[in-house]
Specification:
Blueprint (H helix, E strand, L loop, with lengths): L2 E8 L4 E9 L1
Antiparallel strand pairs: 1-2
Amino acid sequence: MTVIIFFECQIEVLVCANWKLFIV
């Protein structure tokens, strides 16, 4: 089982506010 976290970053402001967690 692997836990993968994806960050949706806005490069313009250098902020990663949204994240998605996947367990596969």
